[in-house]
Amino acid sequence: MTGDQRIPRAIAALPDTAASNVAQQQDKALLRNTLKALRRAIDPATKHAWDDRIGAQVLAWWQAHPHDTLAVYWPLAGEPDLRPAYAQLAQAGVRLALPVVIERDAPLGFTEWIPGEPTVTDRLGVAVPSALRMIARPPALLVPCLGFNARGYRVGYGGGFYDRTLAPAPRPATVGIAYACQLVAFDGDAHDVPLDSVITEEYNGAAERR
User: Which of 155, 166, 156, 168 is nearest to 196 (CA)?
Assistant: First the structure.
């Protein structure tokens, strides 16, 4: 008997719920890989123009929904680079914060960050200030999305950090950041926390609630 023959029998023997979970995990992994490839394929000049548009949308959002403190993110793996917009927010007096991974399977922590200050790379490859100044969870967060759907659910990298961070009440205001081409159809999991709105180079609006 070959390995290919054994795999379907093993999955078929699982309870319906377990088999469904396995299928969902496989589907999510495929979706993440597809979305990563899609983002990598964006032409650099096009990406730069889109980032500028998204940054302008973020500034317009903040002007309509001002907050003294805003959690932002350091761009990784082709995520929209909004650092010019961050600098403008800081100049306007907004206190910015970057997420910090405290430990596995835990909510994110947040450290105050001033654009231009020295940073170091943490164990996950994320830039954080060289001198951490930890603060409470900000009242508003910009949340990078690998993908998103029309109901405001996001596809992340699978660590669950943002879901755990957003779950405790009171919920902060959340704005997903993505490219319009990352809009996909998928069902959110039971533990997923939907975003209040999503900003892309083409769109700035509230997510649908169904």
Answer: 166
Residue type for 164, please? Answer: R
Beta bridge partners of 100: 109
In angstroms, the first-to-last Cα distance of the chain is 48
Among positive and negative, which fits the CA dihedral 31, 55, 127, 207? Answer: negative
Give the list of residues 6+ apart from residue 88 with CB closer than 8 angstroms, or none. Answer: 59
pTM: 0.84
- Angle at which helix 3-12 crosses helix 16-40, to 10 degrees, equals 120
Contacts of 106 (CB under 8 A, 6+ apart): 161, 164
Write out pLDDT tens, residues 105-156.
899 999 999 999 999 998 878 889 999 999 999 999 999 999 999 999 999 9
Compute how many other C-beta atoms are within 10 angstroms of the C-beta atom of residue 21. Answer: 13
Compute CA 18 distance to the chain's CA centroid, rounded to the nearest angstrom. Answer: 27
At residue 147's C-alpha, the angle toward residues 141 and 150, to 5°, is: 85
Q: Which two tokens stand for residue 203?
A: 């769109």
Quickly tell me which residue has 């990563």 as its tokens.
36
CB 62 within 8 A of CB 199: no
Report the C-alpha gap between 32 and 147 in whole angstroms: 8
* Residue 8 host element (H or E): helix 3-12
